[in-house]
Structures are given as structure tokens and as C-alpha cells.
Amino acid sequence: MRNRRSGCVGSLCAVTLIASVLFGVQDSSRSSSLAAPATYGDLTGLTPPSGACGNEDPAVVAAAMVEVVAVGIRMIRCDLSWWTVQPDDASTWDWLRYDNVVQVAAYLGVDVLFVPGFTPPWARPNPLPAGTSNPSHVPPVHFVDYVNFVYEAAQRYSPSGPKRPSGFVGSVTKWEIWNEPNIVGFWNPVNPVRYGVFLAASATVIHWVEPTATVISGGLAPAGNINGNLAPDTFTYVVALTGALNLVDGVGVHPYTFPAYPSEKINFNPLVNHIPRMYNVMKTFGAGSKKIWVTEAGWPTSSLSGETTRFDGSQVGTEPIQALAMWDLITTWNRYPYAGPLYLYAHRDKCTNLANWLCMMGLERADGSKKPAYSVIRAMMGMPVS
């Protein structure tokens, strides 16, 4: 791999490196083998309160991030919004919100996994693809625009990045490329070949800046091969054909199991269905030494939701069951030999609608009061992995 100080600058570097990916330059030596952790806290992260992932006031960021630390968690997953940084065009940059995240995290000893995403209006296709629900989730017309954004972010936030602001303390070494690209809600239309090229180019520019950085493929939703979506193992297989798995350090997935319990051995459960098949794909393509990262997983307390109604009609979207399920999730996941870090979703509920599972995933209720699962997770973070 060429040295990042070899002479090209700005978007020219991104274009040059993308070309090298397209013409088959690969580094199959990358591996995300992790040192044996001492406690569950060493391998457990969290999607934090929204303020922790970006605000123009560093005090707001600090207050939210302190709440995460209080749970005993030192790893957070944050969106790095391309739309926020480049709202109007490809030539202007506003990093303030994310500078605050990185700086506050450094002072509090919190490790940040950034997820670059959210396509700004100027980079979107026009017209948007049919069936688009959120225009910012559609991939850009020219993926070089996204890759250049990722490249600039890596130069700013990597420990040895050449564009680090003067006096900057914090740094980021972990990157997840997009969110749930296997479903039309986040990549429309789903295209694993295009995503594979997109992923390979993004990983290349990050590693150009910081060879020791950890780059994870976008966490895959637990979908089936239906309605334009692709199952995680199917999607991973096609991405692997592009060579992208040779360039990343781990593979991301979002194995929400409910209403099946995490340890329940039934086909509905992605922990015993999709993920083992994903790992077989990784082994087939020479990436079996890399870890699978659960970048979202959790259990909702939406007791009026059909998503939390079990096959026998019983309701498992309750706070006591969430506490048991979170224990089950963490202990079950860490028994797999390919298990990488697990990021819980989420710290706090976003609503009080008991029929809406997606906004009822928190360890805390919307008003900040704590559910039983909060105490369970806090206790677990200091326990040795077994």
C-alpha cells in the first residue's frame, strides 16, 4: 500500500485510490483479531443519547456522554452525518459537531465508532429511486463524493491524520461504512456489487491515512430475500465476490432476535441462522480470521407491538423480559468464536408509544428514568467474560 504522504492531495487521492480498488489491488492480510477481553465491558458498546453524537455546544455532548460512562460503557456508535458536514456542496466543510464528539470522548476515555452516512441533497440522484422513504438514506450518484468525505474525515480524526486541528486531543480509529445497506430503507435499490466497490474504496482511503484503523462493513439488517431486501448471508456473499472483504477488518450485522430469545435455537433467530451462514461465506473467501461485529442489537419494551408478540401469542415486549433478554444476548453472543464487539441499541427510548418497537429500545425510558435492564447492563460490564 502506498504511503499516504506520497504526493497526491484532496479528492485526487480519493480518485487514485478508488481506481486501484477497481483494478484489483487488494490487501488480504487485514484481520481484526482482538486480544482476549477481561470483562463484558471490554466488548460492549452502546448507541448513546443523541446529544453525545453531536451538538454545537460541547457541554451538551459531555452531559450526554457522561450518562453512557455511568452505565459502565466506554464504547459508543455515532452517525457521522455527511449531510451535516457538507449540506450545500462538495467544497465546504463544517466539522464542529463532530469535533466536539471526538474531543469530549477523549477526555472521558470513550472510544467512538463513526458511521459515515446521510447523503446530502446535492449528492442524491434526481429523481429519487421509486419507493424511497428517506432521501438521505439513498446512496449518492457519484460514490467518489462519499469516499472523499470519508477520506477527509479520516485525515481529520485519525491519530496520525495530516489535517488534525492544532491542539486536537481526540482521535477515531473505528469506522463502519454505511448502515444496513441490505435493505431498501437504507440503500435503494439494494445493490451488493455497488456497495462492495463503495466499501472497498472507503476502506482503502481510511487505511491510506491510518493503516492500523479498523474498518467494518455496514451492519446488515435481519431481513429476508424479499421485497427488494437481501438476507445478510446472501448480501455478504455478493459483496465478497467484489473483493471487499479482503480490505475490511470485520463484518457488521444487526441481529435483532425478538420475539425469539437470543439463545433460542430456532430458524427465526439470526444468531443461529443468518450469522453462521455469513461466517461460512467469510471463511470461503479467506476472511475467516476476521470478527463479526454486532453494531446494533437490543430488545424493545413495546408491549402493544406485533413485533414483540411471540409465535404462541404471548407478549415479550415488557421491561422485565428486556432485562433477561439483554443478559441472554450478551452472554450468548460472546460464546461464538467469531464474536467481535457488540453495541447495544439503545441508551434511551425515543418515544412513549407502546405499539412502536423501534423507539422503545432504550435502557432508559424517554424521561430518563431507568428500566430494569439498565441495572443488569451496569452490573454485567464489570463481570469477566465466560
Offer a few descriptive terms:
4-stranded parallel β-sheet; 12% strand; 386 residues; 10 helices; alpha/beta; 8 strands; TIM Barrel; disordered N terminus; single chain
Q: Enumerate the strands of the largest sheet in spatial order, edge to edge or round the barrel.
A: 1-8-7-6
Please identify, by name, the CATH architecture.
Alpha-Beta Barrel
Structural class, from helix and strand content?
A: alpha/beta
Overall number of strands: 8
- Output the CATH class name: Alpha Beta
| CATH superfamily (homologous) name | Glycosidases
Mean pLDDT: 92
CATH fold naming: TIM Barrel
Question: Rg to the nearest angstrom?
Answer: 20 Å
Give structural notes:
The chain is α/β, with parallel strands linked by helices. It has one domain: TIM Barrel. It is 31% helix and 12% strand. It is built from 10 helices and 8 strands. The strands form 2 sheets. It has a 4-stranded parallel sheet, with helices on one face. β3, α5 and β4 form a beta-alpha-beta unit. α2 runs parallel beside α4. It is globular, with a radius of gyration of 20 Å.
Structure summarized in a few sentences:
It is built from ten helices and eight strands. With 386 residues, it is α/β, with parallel strands linked by helices. Helix 2 packs parallel to helix 4 (96-108), helix 5 (143-157) runs parallel beside helix 6 (192-209) and helix 7 (232-241) runs parallel beside helix 8.
